[in-house]
Amino acid sequence: MTSHASPLVRRNTGDATNYTPGLGSCGQTNTEADMVVAVHTPQCGKQISATYQGKTIKVKVVDTCPACAEGDLDLSPAAFGQWADASAYGPGRLHGVQWNYV
């Protein structure tokens, strides 16, 4: 009998904040309307699946966020707005976001 184990997926948990994208450290220019993210360490072009309070979004890594803690996500307004109204929360910070690279 053979068993087929599924690959382990590393789940990260951290805070989500929002920022205004522009020319990112990955060399790509993005706008507030793009579903993009900046992370602590360079991961240019990788896709992330992130979940907060049962709602999942997908974003592309286009920038780094040296001020972010490892595990935190700095989202464009379009991405952050899928979970919360950034204008209602000022700079906006959501705790307990779970995410992984896909």
TrEMBL record:
CDD domains: DPBB_RlpA_EXP_N-like. The keyword Signal applies. Pfam families: DPBB_1. It comes from the Eukaryota. Residues 13-85 form the RlpA-like protein double-psi beta-barrel domain. Coiled coil: none annotated. Transmembrane segments: none annotated. The keyword Glycosyltransferase does not apply. Residues 1-21 are annotated as: Disordered. Keywords: Signal. This is RlpA-like protein double-psi beta-barrel domain-containing protein.
